[in-house]
Design a protein that fits this description.
This protein has 598 residues and is of the alpha/beta class. It has helices at residues 3-35, 44-103, 124-128, 132-137, 146-157, 204-254, 260-290, 303-320, 340-357, 406-412, 418-428, 482-492, 505-514, 531-542, 560-568, 581-591, and strands at residues 107-111, 117-120, 166-173, 179-188, 196-202, 299-301, 324-329, 336-338, 362-372, 375-384, 432-438, 442-452, 474-478, 498-502, 519-522, 547-548, 551-555, 573-576, 596-597. 51% of the residues lie in helices and 19% in strands. Strands 2-1-5-4-3 form a five-stranded antiparallel β-sheet, with helices on both faces.
């Protein structure tokens, strides 16, 4: 026993011992002195010793028992209070649990390992329309299809005790017959009971939203496909007549039999036709950019050569207006690995605008390059002395269908797409584009792009001889449009090229069966049989020969996917309409007289 406990008991025993001893002394005095009247027998000291010896252990024992009883009472009282608190906490937890269960939007269920329902939260009535008692009496497969029930059973069989929950979506039938979608989470408790915990929620609105989104996406894709088909058809329908207009205008412009007035008028026709072709090309380019169809094709190119080439393309128009075109580029500008043709398109857009909006003065193309390790930053500028742009209009001119103001549009024309296309191209290259301008004094349009330095490949010697009158090339032209057939004849026959024509794919196949040709120019959209089918038939027919005649698509179908379709059908090259005489002669020179493995 602890000393402190003994000391405490002694302290509590002392008063009792004192009380007993005092009572013994009083009793001894009363009995011997007062009652017996014999003072000699009254011995207080002896009584004190005897009473102390007898009372001390008795009092100590009684005190100990009393203290034990008090301790037991305190412990019992504390135990009762703890149990009462536990009961109150349990009741509160039960109340909160029932409150939670009654107000849950999700349904919580417990299933025994034998597949029997143990518990179902009251929210089941809100979800399914069945009361708690009705639901507990239903068989497990009552509300779902056989296929969904088997699928869910497979999910349950794959669960591990204490493992992560597995989710499943399925259709379910309410009590009123309405079909709803449920999402359930299945997990096995890891306490050794193997009880299955299932939580389910109504996701009908979400599923309906998913269905609506899918339908909207399908409609959008259909609309996009319709737009693509429309663009493809419009491209073909616009380029086909432009082929004849531009082609014959070019033939007449080169003729020496026209007087000055007629030559000038033919020049007007050619300029107007090229303007219309530029509009068509801009619309198609921007449609592809908006649809995310711009794929960059990086390759080694010479920025200085690009600048000189673009300047040469607009020089004739500039000189006609009395403008001087100058190119400023350092001699040490290094080749880079970027999409050169796309950068040329941007620079040419800048130059075309500069020529259009400049009445007098000069146009300068400036190139600078900053080397940064294995990469370089290329900055291109087109500086003009034209009408300039007001500060409030500078940002808007890079938006689609936008020009500085309505007066500019009426005076100079144009679609307002060139700069929008240029911005999309430069942004696709992760570069920057902008303009600095002073109204009435001129503008500087610029771009900056970063790319790796590159080495230009050595030029390959082409095994192609220039066409001359003794070339003796025999060419088959498969074209349904009579005007275009006449145009191609007019362009090629002065160079000693024999042109035989067929007005559809069937006639083209028959001509190939009857004769030998050095080259085939094949239109794509034709009646009776289209050019793609005719090409496949010709390739199949030539398969046994071990060699094939080069076939070049000559078509107004110029979209990238259309070009890919031509090549996939067995064609060797593509020549877009309207036909450029120089490109036509280059193509004939490149492919005529060649054969390759079938």
């Amino acid at each position: 026993m602890k000393p402190a406990v003994v000391r405490d008991r002694i302290f509590k025993t002392a008063p009792t011992v004192g009380l007993i001893v005092a009572a013994a002394l009083i009793a001894d005095y009363v009995i011997n002195v007062l009652v017996m009247r014999n003072p000699q027998t009254f011995t207080p000291f002896t009584t004190l010793i005897i009473a102390t010896v007898v009372a001390t252990p008795l009092a100590y024992w009684l005190t100990s028992q009393k203290m034990k009883l008090e301790q037991l009472r305190d412990e019992l009282s504390a135990s009762v209070e703890a149990q009462q608190r536990a009961i109150e906490q349990y009741r509160e937890a039960d109340r909160l649990y029932r409150l939670l269960g009654d107000n849950l939007t999700d349904h919580v269920a417990l299933w025994s390992p034998k597949g029997e329902r143990i518990y179902s939260s009251p929210s089941i009535e809100r979800i399914t329309g069945y009361t708690h008692e009705e639901f507990m009496a239903l068989p497990p497969q009552a509300m779902v299809s056989d296929a969904d029930f088997k699928r869910v059973q497979g999910v349950i069989r794959g669960l591990e005790a204490g493992g992560p929950p597995v989710h499943a979506d399925y259709e379910s039938a309410r009590k009123d017959g309405r079909v709803i979608w449920l999402e359930s989470s299945y997990s096995r408790l890891g306490d050794g009971s193997d009880i299955l915990l299932v939580t389910s929620r109504d996701i009908t609105e979400r599923k309906q939203l998913e269905i609506d989104i899918a339908k909207a996406l399908e409609l959008a894709e259909a609309a996009s496909a319709a737009k693509s088909d429309f663009l493809a058809n419009m491209t073909h329908e616009l380029r086909t007549p432009l082929t004849a207009i531009i082609g014959f205008a070019e033939v007449l412009r080169r003729s020496r039999n026209l007087n000055k007035t007629a030559a000038r008028q033919v020049g007007h026709i050619l300029d107007a036709s090229n303007t219309l072709l530029s509009v068509v090309n801009d619309v198609l380019d921007f449609s592809r950019l908006e649809a995310g169809g711009l794929e960059l094709d990086p390759g080694p190119f010479d920025p200085a050569a690009m600048a000189s080439s673009c300047a040469a393309l607009v020089e004739e128009r500039a000189v006609a207006k009395g403008l001087k075109v100058e190119v400023r580029a350092a001699k040490d500008i290094a080749p880079m690995n970027l999409d050169g043709p796309r950068l040329s398109q941007v620079l040419l857009n800048f130059l075309s605008n500069a020529v259009k909006f400049t009445a007098h003065g000069a146009i300068t193309v400036a190139l600078t390059q900053t080397i940064d390790g294995e990469e370089a930053v290329l900055r291109g500028e087109v500086i003009d002395t034209g009408i300039g742009i007001a500060a409030e209009n500078r940002e808007a001119i890079f938006d689609r269908f936008s020009q500085a103001d309505a007066a500019v549009s009426r005076r100079f024309g144009g679609t307002g797409l060139g700069l929008a296309i240029s911005r999309r191209i430069i942004e696709r290259m992760d570069g920057q584009i902008g303009v600095d301008s002073v109204e009435g004094q001129g503008s500087t349009f610029w771009f900056e792009v970063r790319g790796p330095l590159a080495e230009l490949p050595a030029p390959e010697a082409e095994d192609v001889s220039p066409l001359d009158a003794e070339a003796g090339v025999r060419l088959l032209l498969v074209e349904d449009n009579a005007v275009n057939r006449e145009l191609i004849r007019t362009m090629l026959e002065p160079f000693g090229i024999g042109v035989e024509t067929a007005n559809d794919g069937v006639a083209g196949i028959e001509a190939m069966r009857q004769g030998q040709f050095d080259l085939v120019l094949m239109d794509v959209q034709m009646p009776v049989m289209d050019g793609l089918t005719a090409t496949r038939e010709i390739r199949a027919m030539e398969g046994a020969r071990g060699a094939a005649t080069p076939i070049v698509a000559m078509t107004a179908n110029v979209l990238p996917e259309q070009i890919a379709t031509c090549l996939a059908a067995g064609m060797d090259d593509h020549l877009g309409k309207p036909i450029n005489p120089t490109k036509l002669l280059e193509t004939v020179a490149r492919w005529s007289g060649r054969t390759h493995a079938a």
